[in-house]
Amino acid sequence: MKKIFVPTSSGTDWQQLLAKPVTHWKQGASAMTAAAAWEAANGALPPEITRVLESSRDPLLMGQQLLAALPEWQVPLPGGITTSNTDVLAICRNELGLCIIGVEAKVLEDFGPLVSSKRAEASSGQGERLAYLHSLLGVDRFDDSIRYQLLHRTASALLTARDFHAVAAVMLVQAFDTPVARRADFEAFRMAMGAREVAPLIYKVDSFTGPALYLAWCDGDSRFRDVALPSAHQFIVETTGTST
């Protein structure tokens, strides 16, 4: 995992950072939709995210200024070499200090496998990682029906916030007109975490301090699903076999 980052010139620059740059870069899918939405924000948080944070009336979340947005932020976790890749890692600041927002963008995609399927895997590494996530998040045992992705995305936001000595960590789902079932998965997870509502769509896990931990759901601007960003030159060559 490299720690050197360069600014983007357009949303197309996000493609090369994806785990599967060709298959994941599609109009109407979360990767391209998120890239379009964040690039359109012109160096600020997307307005819908700001509205959710401001609605909390929580001093740790209000008045956030975006310092940097890092697509496909990788966080290593115990139990294997595979990292947890956050769609967008937003480093923000207000008068009280830094706030780390780990954004998981969703369109039609689900949150992946259930915790039950991870428990069923024979890999010792997977068992180690699952035990670590339970310990880090302070839950004795997540129900089998909880979506595993929500565990490690929350862990990623929390660990990154600790690394940056931030005062707050937020795991935020930026949903672009997603199916109702996705929201139900989020609600099941936040209840399993014991998170209480501080305002509609934003919840605080009171057992965490330094940094404080929040879980949030944000309805993104669905118009960005219709934005078609071009593929980067190297991936056009890869899929067609010719240079343009």
Protein topology:
Blueprint: H1 30-40, H2 47-55, E1 65-75, E2 84-94, E3 97-106, H3 115-120, H4 124-137, H5 148-163, E4 168-175, H6 180-192, E5 196-199, E6 202-205, E7 212-219, H7 233-240
Parallel strand pairs: 3-4, 4-7
Antiparallel strand pairs: 1-2, 2-3, 5-6, 6-7
Helix pairs in contact: 4-5
The rounded Rg comes to 18 Å
The residue fraction in helices comes out at 25-40%
H/E series: HHEEEHHHEHEEEH
Fraction of residues in β-strands? 15-25%
Content-based structural category: alpha/beta
> Number of folding domains?
1
The number of helical elements comes to 7
Gap from first CA to last CA: 31 Å
User: Which ranges are low-confidence, i.e. pLDDT below 50, for 5 or more consecutive residues?
Assistant: none
Largest sheet, strands/sense/barrel: 7 strands, mixed
Nearest-integer average pLDDT: 94
- According to DSSP, the number of beta strands is 7
Strand adjacency order, main sheet = 1-2-3-4-7-6-5
Shape descriptor: globular
Structure, explained:
This protein has 244 residues and is of the alpha/beta class. The protein has one domain (15-240). Helices cover 32% and strands 23% of the residues. It contains 7 helices and 7 strands, in the order ααβββαααβαβββα. It has helices at 30-40, 47-55, 115-120, 124-137, 148-163, 180-192, 233-240, and strands at residues 65-75, 84-94, 97-106, 168-175, 196-199, 202-205, 212-219. Strands 1-2-3-4-7-6-5 form a 7-stranded mixed beta sheet, with helices on both faces. β2 (84-94) and β3 (97-106) form a beta hairpin. α4 (124-137) crosses α5 (148-163). The chain is globular, with a radius of gyration of 18 Å. The two termini are 31 Å apart. The relative contact order is 0.18. The model has no long low-confidence stretch (mean pLDDT 94).
